[in-house]
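Field reference: sequence -> structure
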Amino acid sequence: MSRSTNSSYSGRARASGDDVRRVLDGAQVVFVAGGYPIFLLEHVRRSGFDRLAAPAVADGALAYVGISAGAALAGPDLRPLQSSDDPGTVVSTAGLGLVPFVVLPHRNRGRAARHDRLAGDPARTWP
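Structure field:
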């Protein structure tokens, strides 16, 4: 049986920590869409989503689904996804750490060689 969740804040750029807590409270699943990865991370940090969602996912109280930048956010670091056209600004590019590997989305969009290069560099480490 599926349950509808409150999505009244999806797409809002200025959701507060209280807003995020209210929306996540009682939710079974959170769906994080794509966009600019660092811009997404900036807003995840500003809103407190990272401090609320990551522990809930780790505890099994919340399922996390992400596509594109939302999928990359689940990894330990978004540094490989930084680009000059991303309007986001963060001090740290650390992701939510829900999975132990860096998520490199859109391999099918001409990024296979870049992904292979990033994944095949044994000297490259991310937190």
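Note: Residues 1-12 have pLDDT under 50 and may be disordered.
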